[in-house]
Automatic annotation (TrEMBL):
Location of the SLBB domain: 119-194
Any one GO MF annotation of this record: polysaccharide transmembrane transporter activity
Organism in which the protein naturally occurs: Dictyoglomus thermophilum (strain ATCC 35947 / DSM 3960 / H-6-12)
Signal peptide: 1-20
Polysaccharide export protein N-terminal domain boundaries: 37-109
Domain Soluble ligand binding, residue spans: 201-252, 322-352, 392-435, 477-525
Membrane topology classification: Multi-pass membrane protein
Subcellular location: Cell outer membrane
Gene Ontology CC annotations of this record: cell outer membrane; pore complex
Domain of life: Bacteria
Official protein name in the record: Polysaccharide biosynthesis/export protein, putative
Length: 587
């Protein structure tokens, strides 16, 4: 059991070493460093302890030092070169050599004493000079050993010359973000140079760490805001300015920088110049109406709107009463532009994209109706009116023809209602939906009344770019029986019986002119009006040439029909022919 515990301890220790020693000279302080075997490079002065655990649990150990020429010496094996090998790579090489003499054994390598390295540090540090430091020292350690950076020092461009290679390091990234790649271990002979601070900008106001920050070429607003820890609580997204040394003032779009689309973010993330001064003000009680409205921007929320003597709002700032609804604020912003959506309005609580609500305010903003979706806003909320993405056109016999926005799932019924419904002249059948699919123009017919009732086969789902057409109801008069061209004819107000007979090509030879019947709907009842055309033609009885009304049926019987008692047979013939014509004429 004791042997097993020993092996476990050696396993854990083989790739790590907590380094602790008396406080070194020149102010070095190491509160306990963990060696990274993949990064620590061996050199003269390092001391290794090597454990060989054999199959029978017998353990041998060797303590060796790296010689000035970079070798270690092991019994049986001899010299092994470890100069400039990482601890991991040296362990592999030592194991490869020893396993020839200790087959089926486990080999572990531990670093028990760390070498010292000589470095030179110059430039903007408190105490430049030569130092002998532990090889576990990083750039951060040696800067502290040298008394720290001066106020004039660059944190963004520190150089380490290592032989022929020069490393350029951004020390601020290590301090701010813990980027260890910018805080490497020092090595023997390193020459460290800290130059003067380069271009710098100030950032003041509602950021987490106000102050002066060094910037590199090409760095932008977002980079400096990040260096300053980001925006503080109650920072205004719309009240931030950038003042340049030439007196130019730029109003910053911080909302777009953090919450806009890619194009807006890129535009808001302006490049910085030496001497720029950024100020982020405190948020006041306001909301923001943005996007496709006439006057986008902030709106001040007040308990009572105060106006000047001429009725203008004091201070020239748009105001609204605390507790105002979305629609009221949109109206304060000048209303939705023609290409703005009323059906996909976004309410971002506290300006956060993650707390976004999509609201359909068409009926409120366009029709002036009320809606439960028209909710109250809170200070800090952002209302965004996006552009119309999908639309259809509706033409013909609706009260308000035009272009209407649609959302996913909209059908014909919704658009007919949005267009104000049908006119009195609208056809009840024969509606058309025209759609472009794969470069081809397709037309779908639908029953208008069925679509309004929501019957699915006629209430078709709409797609972007569709055109709906509601035709006019054909106003007709039907001339049937013994005429040369029996058919349905366009109704025109004031036309007489004889005019429609003429339009139908006149009478046939077997037409009974004395027994012409006009069938008319009067107050929901069917009435038959008998007319003797002989009286009109032969005796000039123009009073019998009655005015025909819309949907009248003029029926000319054959001469063999005897008396008015056969009117039932006449009507049967009329309705039979009418039933055949109905699908054609659309009545």
């Amino acid at each position: 059991m004791k042997r097993a515990i020993l092996v476990l301890i050696l396993l854990i220790a083989s790739f790590s070493l907590i380094y602790a020693q008396e406080a070194p000279s020149l102010g070095e302080v190491y509160s306990g460093k963990v060696i990274e075997p993949d990064k620590y490079v061996l050199g003269p002065g390092d001391v290794l302890r090597i454990f060989v655990v054999q199959e029978n649990n017998k353990t041998e150990s060797f303590t060796v030092s790296v010689s000035p020429t970079g070798f270690i010496f092991l019994p049986l094996v001899g010299s092994i070169k470890v100069l400039n090998l990482t601890l991991s790579d040296a362990t592999k090489e030592i194991s490869r050599q020893l396993v020839r003499f200790y087959p089926r054994s486990n080999i572990y390598v531990d670093l028990i004493n760390v070498k010292k390295v000589n470095i030179l540090i110059t430039g903007e540090v408190a105490n430049p000079g030569n130092y002998k430091v532990s090889a576990l020292s990083t750039l951060d350690d040696v800067l502290k050993i040298a008394g720290g950076l001066k106020a004039s020092a660059s944190y963004r461009r520190i150089f380490i010359k290592r032989g022929e290679k020069v490393l350029e390091l951004d020390y601020l990234k290590f301090l701010k973000y813990g980027d260890t790649s910018q805080n490497p271990y020092v090595e023997e002979g390193d020459f460290i140079y800290v130059p003067l601070m380069g271009d710098r900008v100030k950032i003041l106001g509602r950021v987490k760490s106000p102050g002066e920050y060094e910037v590199k070429d090409g760095e932008r607003l977002k980079d400096v805001l990040d260096m300053a820890g980001g925006l503080a609580i109650n920072a205004s997204l719309f009240d931030a300015t950038l003042d340049r040394v030439d007196g130019t003032r730029i109003y910053l779009d911080l909302y777009g920088l953090y919450y806009g689309d890619k194009e807006r973010k890129d535009k808001a993330n302006i490049e910085l110049k030496d001497g720029d001064s950024i100020t982020v003000l405190t948020e006041t009680k306001r909301v923001y109406v943005l996007g496709f409205v006439a006057n986008p921007g902030p709106i001040q929320l007040v308990e009572e709107i105060k106006t000047g003597p001429q009725g203008e709002e004091i201070g020239g700032v748009t105001q609204a009463v605390v507790g105002a609804k979305i629609s009221e604020l949109i109206k304060e912003a000048g209303g939705v532009l023609p290409n703005g959506s009323t059906r996909r309005i976004e309410l971002r609580r506290g300006g956060k994209e993650s707390d976004k609500i999509i609201i359909d305010l068409y009926r409120v903003l366009v029709l002036g109706e009320e809606s439960e979706e028209d909710i109250k806003v809170n200070p800090g909320d952002v209302i965004y009116v996006p552009p119309v993405l999908k639309s259809v056109k509706i033409l013909g016999q609706v009260r308000n023809p035009g272009v209407y926005e649609i959302v996913e799932g909209d059908r014909i019924r919704e658009i007919l209602l949005k267009a104000g419904g049908l006119t009195e002249k609208a056809a009840r059948e024969g509606g058309e939906l025209v759609r472009l699919e794969n470069g081809k123009k397709l037309t779908y017919k639908f029953n208008v009344v069925n679509a309004l009732q929501g019957i699915e086969k006629d209430n078709l789902e709409l797609k972007d770019g569709d055109t709906l057409y509601i035709p006019e109801l054909r106003r007709l008069v039907y001339v049937l029986g013994q005429v040369n061209n029996p058919a349905a004819y366009e109704y025109r107000e004031g036309r007489k019986l004889t005019e429609y007979i003429s339009m139908a090509g006149g009478f046939k030879d077997r037409a009974d002119l004395s027994r012409i019947a006009i069938v008319r709907e009067i107050n929901g009842e069917t009435k038959v009006i008998p007319i003797n055309v002989n009286e009109i033609v032969n005796k000039g009885r123009s009073d019998l040439d009655i005015t025909i009304e819309e949907n009248d049926i003029i029926f000319v019987p054959e001469v063999f029909i005897k008396g008015w008692q056969d009117i039932v047979n006449i009507l049967s013939g009329i309705f039979y022919v009418y039933s055949l014509l109905k699908p054609i004429v659309g009545w």
